[in-house]
Design goal:
The complex is a heterotrimer of chains A (316), B (168) and C (414). Chain A has 316 residues and is an alpha/beta fold. Chain A has helices spanning 24-41, 65-77, 98-106, 122-129, 147-161, 179-190, 220-223, 238-241, 248-255, 259-262, 285-288, 295-315, and strands at 55-60, 81-86, 112-117, 135-141, 168-172, 195-199, 215-217, 229-232, 270-272. In chain A, 38% of the residues lie in helices and 14% in strands. The mean pLDDT of chain A is 93. Chain B has a single domain (6-166), classed as Rossmann fold (3-Layer(aba) Sandwich), CATH 3.40.50.2020. The chains are: A alpha/beta (316), B alpha/beta (168), C alpha/beta (414).
């Protein structure tokens, strides 16, 4: 169990399940390859023939039009055939298990599964049981990981900051429930970021989060001081219902990113958000649309990063 | 075996291309050796249009066998391809498959008026109906040898022969 | 090897008419029908397991009485307590009688049902405990189900103590544990698994201990999991409260780290906790704060485990691993095997309040004869239990049962 389930026996990427445990050269190879795809997405013909004849199955056990669309665009720009399956209601309710579904789809000669599931570890489970020629990309599993989001954030950071080796990065918000935060933390630490901070009230931090290699802050005023990069997280309304927070208003007042709080960071700090944003909850519109925001770049780069991941996997 | 001097071949290639150069001629180098050559040609021929670069990794026909090239460079075509007269530049012309991929990629930028090909060395053994208009030298080489252009620390170009299995 | 009588010697055991008739020198004129040569083997009392789910009635797709009773004797277990969380739960005398009858007809391990403390295990209304006792229940518990209020828990304890019935509870505050599937530590944080904090155990323990003091009820704590929990039990026992305690064999050896990349075989209840918790359990067992080791046998069908960690059903097969895991603890703690065997023989028998778990003249001839040096690989094919899931799958364990005798009959020969 201790050998990395993401790598094949040659040490190459077989599946992308989490950014945790991936060697820096593999992360950098993905980012470097994505650079080339950025050029492709800026051409008239935004398509390359790399995955011609390959079938990419988007298996979404949890609805997310947005994420599914980015994977679909990425696959289509690689000339792959894309099949979208929203399985939240169809077969699962008929008693078919997750692995039944996967086995049925494998029989349709899938080359790659892009999996979104509400349970942590679902992508690992699928990767463990698919035929060896099939590649699995985790498009978000429970609270565990969302590696392509983490990687596109790394791409964006590198695009604006060149290098990770002298950066101070703050991740702000609901760390406890965030698969994005976990993927960001592992990628940042692997790529040599000297200081990663998390800023959140105690109800939104998991136990022993410092063991992931981050510094814990509870106040924006201290946590944002002199940071180069701010990674904002989305706040779900459920947090109020589960008594983790009193109200979105109080959250915004203490943890929402406003111009005043942003002024504590470095003058050239950049602000990222995985989307969709809750304006006035975790981020003020003036910041979201302001000159420090690189949120729209993230969306563009997201396609290129996913193209890179798919083409590297398909080639291994 | 004695390989020709790359700098001399480049000089003769430059001379042959020069007579055909017009105001709308554009150079596009294919990574890696072709880009080095195109840079030199672009400088020496004093071309007006900026030079383009192609990394054909996304268009290769052997992706299914060998996967993605470990170091893909971004392609960049900083001029309007539509209606342009392009000279593709590569170091070694061999099976023709790289050129096929490069032509395909160029067409995804637009429809050029013409494409010609310049190669420092043509080693024959074509697998596709492709020919170069400008060739520095024609060589016959054993099929188990790879010929590649190298760039020294003094920026001097040279040709070298190696066995693919032993790397290089 | 008999911990109760302090025997650890090379001797003969003489059995007649289902009972042990002599140990050491045989009775005059004893003629053996059959001799078992136990050279290089250990003869010890049949093991007593405080927590085995037999999945009958109602959950036969996970396991049947036949398969699990066979697993019990294959593991050297001759007496076992089964929890009331069947379908329907053991809350009516008829169900208990049926179970006892079914078990008796198999002529294998003695089955001691734990009756439901509340009707339907709903934590609301008391069951007819005295009737259930008459039907065969030896104690009462809630399995993993909560009480609807502390008041119900108090009344259940008061009523049980009226008849001196033992109350068996697994300390876990339901609201604090709600939705959690792994220990609230580094691994759950890394894997993004909903967590169960230690205070889910300690808050419940605190309630149980205070209510035990208030009501005088005899309490048995099932499957304690945390260092703080062990400390609380130690303190309560020091005050003289009638509290006993067991630990699951898995928890003596495993920690949250063993979950690795979402190994659903490590999805257990209570969750595998941190390394310091495991250490406290191992030492708490040594110093007697924890009385007994149980198998926490909970066979799960394959499909229920082939799910993402959080959705996979909790539990592991355990009857056949109880002996080797106990011996492993002894070896690692550098204590004599006889001292360890007490935790799966005489101690659990004392908690059950049954005459078992020792080798004495006139006692029932329930024996386990095992090869202490023999290594065996835990594999689906060798497990008799219908549940093939255990965190130890694929590992080699030392100590293999050769013979199991119940009432003098050989019921398992390995």
């Amino acid at each position: 169990m201790n050998n990395n389930p993401q790598l094949n026996k040659n040490g190459e990427l077989q599946h992308l399940l989490t950014t945790e445990g991936l060697p820096a050269p593999i992360l950098l190879h993905i980012l470097d390859t994505a650079e080339s795809f950025v050029g492709v997405t800026e051409r008239d013909v935004k398509k390359v023939p790399l995955l011609r004849g390959k079938s990419v199955f988007n298996l979404f056990f949890e609805p997310s039009t947005r994420t599914r669309t980015t994977f679909e665009i990425a696959a289509k720009r690689l000339s792959a055939d894309v099949v979208n399956l929203n399985i939240a209601v169809s077969s699962q309710s008929k008693g078919e298990t997750l692995l039944d579904t996967v086995n049925n789809l494998s029989a349709m000669h899938a080359d790659m599964f892009v999996v979104r599931h509400s349970q942590s570890g679902a992508a690992h489970l699928i990767a463990r049981h698919v035929r060896p020629e099939i590649h699995v990309i985790n498009a978000g599993d429970g609270r565990h990981a969302h590696p392509t989001q983490g990687l596109l954030d790394m791409f964006t950071i590198r695009h604006y900051k060149r290098d990770f080796h002298n950066l101070r990065v703050a991740i702000v918000g609901d760390i406890l429930h965030s698969r994005v935060a976990r993927s960001q933390i592992h990628a940042l630490t692997t790529l040599g970021t000297p200081e990663v901070r998390v800023i959140a009230p105690r109800t939104l931090l998991p136990a022993k989060v410092e063991r992931l290699g981050v510094h814990v802050y509870h106040e924006m005023e201290r946590g944002l001081k002199d940071v180069d990069v701010l990674l904002m997280l989305r706040l779900q309304n459920e947090r109020m219902l589960s008594a983790r927070l009193p109200s979105t208003e109080e959250y915004f007042k203490y943890y929402g990113l406003t111009q005043e709080k942003l002024a504590l960071a470095k003058r050239d700090a950049i602000v990222l958000h995985p989307g969709p944003m809750n304006r006035g909850v975790e981020i003020d519109s003036a910041v979201a649309d302001g000159k420090h925001s690189v949120i729209l770049s993230q969306v563009t780069f997201g396609i290129a990063v996913r193209m890179a991941v798919m083409s590297i996997l398909a080639g291994n | 075996m004695q390989l020709p001097d790359a700098e001399q071949l480049l000089a003769s290639l430059t001379g042959r291309i020069r007579s055909d150069v017009a105001a709308n001629t554009a150079l596009v180098g294919i990574y890696t050796g072709g880009v080095w050559l195109a840079e030199r040609l672009h400088h020496d021929l004093e071309l007006a249009l900026p030079m383009g670069t192609l990394d054909v990794s996304f268009y290769r026909d052997d992706f299914g066998q060998i996967g993605l090239h470990p170091q893909v460079k971004p392609s960049g075509i900083p001029f309007e391809v539509e209606g342009s007269h392009i000279i593709l530049v590569d170091d070694v012309l061999y099976t023709g498959r790289t050129i096929r991929a490069a032509i395909n990629e160029l067409f995804d930028y637009g429809r050029p008026a013409s494409i010609r090909l310049a190669a420092l060395v043509d080693r024959g053994d074509r697998e596709l109906p492709i020919a170069a208009q400008y060739v520095g030298a024609t060589l016959k080489l054993p099929s188990d040898k790879m010929l590649a252009l190298e760039k020294g620390i003094d920026a001097k170009l040279s040709l070298s022969l190696y066995n693919p299995k032993s790397g290089g | 090897m008999d911990p109760k009588n302090g025997i650890d010697a090379l001797m003969d055991v003489f059995i007649a008419a289902g009972k042990i008739v002599a140990i050491g020198a045989g009775p005059d004129g004893f003629q053996a029908n059959r001799e078992i040569n136990a050279k290089d083997l250990v003869v010890c009392p049949g093991l007593v397991d405080l927590s085995a789910r037999l999945r009958e009635p109602g959950l036969e797709y996970k396991a049947t009485l036949e398969s699990e009773m066979e697993a019990a004797v294959a593991g050297g277990v001759t007496s076992l307590a089964c929890s009331p969380d069947t379908d329907p739960p053991l809350d009516e005398p008829g169900l208990v009688e049926m179970l006892k009858h079914r078990a008796r007809s198999l002529h294998q391990a003695h089955v001691y049902p734990i009756g439901a403390l509340t009707q339907g295990l709903k934590g609301e209304r008391l069951t007819e405990m005295a009737e259930l006792r008459d039907a065969g229940c030896i104690a009462f518990g809630q399995s993993d189900m909560p009480f609807t209020s502390a008041r119900v828990m108090m009344h259940a304890m008061q009523y049980a103590s009226t008849f001196s019935f033992g109350v068996w509870l697994r300390p876990q505050d339901a609201s604090l544990a709600d939705g959690g599937v792994a220990h609230d530590g580094e691994v759950a944080t890394r894997l993004g698994l909903p967590a169960v904090s230690v205070c889910a155990e300690t808050v419940a323990l605190s309630n149980i201990i205070l209510l035990a003091r208030e009501t005088g009820a005899r309490i048995h704590l099932c499957r304690i999991s945390s260092a703080e929990g062990v400390a609380m039990v130690r303190a309560a026992r020091r005050q003289g409260l009638p509290i006993t305690c067991d630990v699951a064999a898995n928890h003596l050896h495993l920690s949250e780290m063993d979950i690795g990349f979402f190994d659903s075989n490590c999805h257990l209840v209570p969750p595998l906790r941190g390394l310091s918790d495991r250490h406290a359990l191992r030492t708490g067992l040594l110093d007697g704060t924890i009385d007994a080791i149980c198998s926490d046998h909970a066979p799960v069908d394959e499909d229920a485990k082939l799910l993402p960690f959080g959705e996979a059903e909790a539990g592991a097969t355990g009857l056949e691993l109880l002996l080797p895991l106990t011996l492993k603890w002894a070896a690692e703690m550098k204590i004599p095997p006889a001292a360890a065997l007490a935790r799966i023989t005489v101690e659990p028998a004392r908690i059950l309040g049954v005459d078992a778990g020792h080798l004495s003249p006139d006692a029932a001839a329930d024996l386990c004869i095992f090869d202490p040096g023999r290594y065996w690989k835990v594999e689906a094919a060798v497990l008799k239990s219908q549940g093939k899931n255990t965190p130890f799958l694929g590992m080699e364990l030392q100590g293999r049962v050769k013979y199991t005798l119940i009432n003098g009959h050989i019921v398992h020969e390995g």
